[in-house]
Amino acid sequence: MEQRVVGHSGLRVSELGLGTMTWGRDTDALDAADQLRDFVDAGGTLVDTAASYGGGDAERVLGSLLDGQVDRAELVLCTKAGLVRTRDGARADTSRRSLLDGLDASLARLGTDHVDLFLVHTPDSSTPPAEVADTLQQVVASGRARYVGLSNHPAWASSYLAGALARTQAPVTALQLEYSLVQRGVEHEALPAARALGQGVLAWSPLGRGVLTGKYRGAVPSDSRAASPHLGAFVSQYLDARATGVVEAVATAAAGLGREPLEVALAWLLARAGVASAIVGARTPGQLQASLAALDLVLPAELYDALDDVSAPEGGYPERWDGAPPL
Predict the structure, then answer these.
(1) From CA 37, how far away is CA 42, in angstroms rounded?
(2) Which one, 35, 83, 189, 251, has the greatest CB density within 10 A?
């Protein structure tokens, strides 16, 4: 598996990252262990988790696997804090107290003294950006994390914090953003800003919350995320007519190549400029193997362009900044 540099930093990550959002909830410890072993055997290094995943259970499962089953030194561990659960539901809290307490709790669950990349999980309008910037400096200075970044932040917020941290030991190295053939809105501002500021992009949900696998063509499987009471709304917004047209184009392209739709979707995304890694969240070892199968696929230029056109976001582009795919 290719190792890519994250932005203008020295951090290297595998082109596919392993997401753990379902671990401890829909994925038990045995399947998680199989996933991690298969991922490492394929050359994968980036493992993405968060304090909020399963109320900390994802980190607990991952931590148990780092205790003798997989060498911690082989992995690039990424975790996130700043999204807390209360009696009234989840809310953003990126105060110094929340970020530091969240990271310390994550380190305890993971059984390590540091993570390689620490991300602020979500924007919080009630915390001054200067406090967030100061906290990220403290995280790096204390040795809790080697690099820091932001997740799900709009371009203005990531640009502001990047400026505040530019001449410190804790520059904004990575942006974690939702990005796929059915979600390209980040190309308007967030991705051009990241490229200009030297930040690498970690794309989450590169398969469009599962719709780009083609499994929702014609019906919603009863065991799918779209049929789940807690994730149904999360998926359903990509079951509209526009997304369906993109899925059909991907399926047609896959059939012509003799590949699976998800392989085409991942190959398209991995050819985008600035994308350091695409984070795939597999519920089962079989689903992970399907994603790993995409690693040898390079789309023909004409097919890449055709998918680019059919999936273009409404309003077009401010400019065509991404260039051509590698051939």
Answers:
(1) 9
(2) 35
